[in-house]
Amino acid sequence: MSSGLASLGLLASASLVAVCIVRPRLASWVPDILVYLALGLAFGACGLCVQFGLQLSAGPAAGAASAAQTAALYLLVFSSCADLKITSLQRHLLEVGTLLAASVAAFAVGLITVGHIPALAPDATLQAAGDGARLAYFLALSLGVMVCSVPFLTKIFLNVGLQRSPFAHGLLLAACFIDILVWALFSVAVNLRQGNGLVVDTLVQQVLRGLGLTLAAGALAGLAFQGLAHGLRRRRREAPWMLLLATSLLFIGLMHAAGLEPVIGMVLCGLAVAPHRDVFGTAIGRSQALAVTLGAPIYFTCVGFGIQPSSIVSLEAVGVFILWSSVIKITSVSLAAGFIRRPGERRLDYGIAMNTRGGPGLVLAGSAYAAGLIPITGFVALTSASVLTALVTELYLKAAAPRILAADEASSTTAQPLRSL
């Protein structure tokens, strides 16, 4: 058996173990994300693949891992966004706008201060880089501060019982817009890496073009799903799951061909479907069930499977990045929550939750590494931060969930007489 087929067999085995054996037996208090990642590591480049001398960087295993991750990520992102009601944005507008502004501020602070990381923790892989490469590296790391995870937060909210709370709804809406902005800015880092320097006018044009293309794609997806929903209503039928899947994948493919990242297409399609739950409700429910039973275990197992060991990683730089980025993000969001008069404990709740990098952080790390924007140390820093912040958020929100639910219920009860006047 060839090396590629053998590694592909190990990947398939890891996924089957995750779905059929591990997931049904996990206790509710166990951080399942960590378990899936550890399982992937045990089968992948840090485990059995090393023992058998198999390579994962190319061939069937690499292609299959990428395809499996993308499919699982679609289930997580699409089902998460399809559960949001974009029509309720007006009710959460102040909260979403504040969280978005706080994340942009965190990105700006990160971009200003990121140059101190190599001074505090020298990284040998960065020493010989030119000015354009260093700027691209610093921009990618700063995007790693701003990014926020819709799928991870959704999974965590489901685990701790907060998925229907106003707190969760506002956070997830904000995370959608933040991640769209992250990928619009990602092209700027690519341009810096390929170009000779920072040309402000050109980069501004790229950002505006990316945002304009995203808005146009979102409007087109909204119109398409609205038209499909209208046609199904006239026939008094619900959309079958395969029709929803085919339509979504068609738009994601078209958006990708137009220059948008697939993750943006997943988010936009989910948001476009969300207002039409009377037609797509059953199909959305099936997507959400598949996201829990297949999406989460396969995605995180594939991530762990593909992590490559390296002897030139600066662990000191990784630790500094995690601490530096978390302090900036949590502080920025907590301060912003104070401006909209959230109580002290609730401010920290927002800060911890918005610091969850999760899946989009892992995708950002992989995309930046593949594009040559970051060296291996940057890749490990972004992936480590993505995993650790998700684990910290889940542990924190498990303890804080009763208090958050009680506060939301009290707020709703207080607001009830006002609505009846």
CATH architecture: Up-down Bundle
Poorly predicted ranges (pLDDT <50, ≥5 residues)?
A: 415-421
In the CATH hierarchy, the third-tier topology is known as Na+/H+ antiporter like fold
- State which percent range the strand residues make up: under 5%
| CATH first level | Mainly Alpha
Rg for CA atoms: 21 Å
| Count of alpha and pi helical runs | 17
Q: Strand pairing plus helix content: what structural class?
A: mainly alpha
Order of helices and strands: HHHHHHHHHHHHHHHHH
Query: What's the multimeric state?
Result: single chain
Q: Which of globular, elongated, flat, extended, rod-shaped describes the shape?
A: globular
Tell me the number of strands.
0
* Number of self-contained structural domains: 1
Helix coverage percent: over 70%
Overall pLDDT score: 79
- Distance between the ends: 75 Å
Main beta sheet strand tally, sense and closure: none
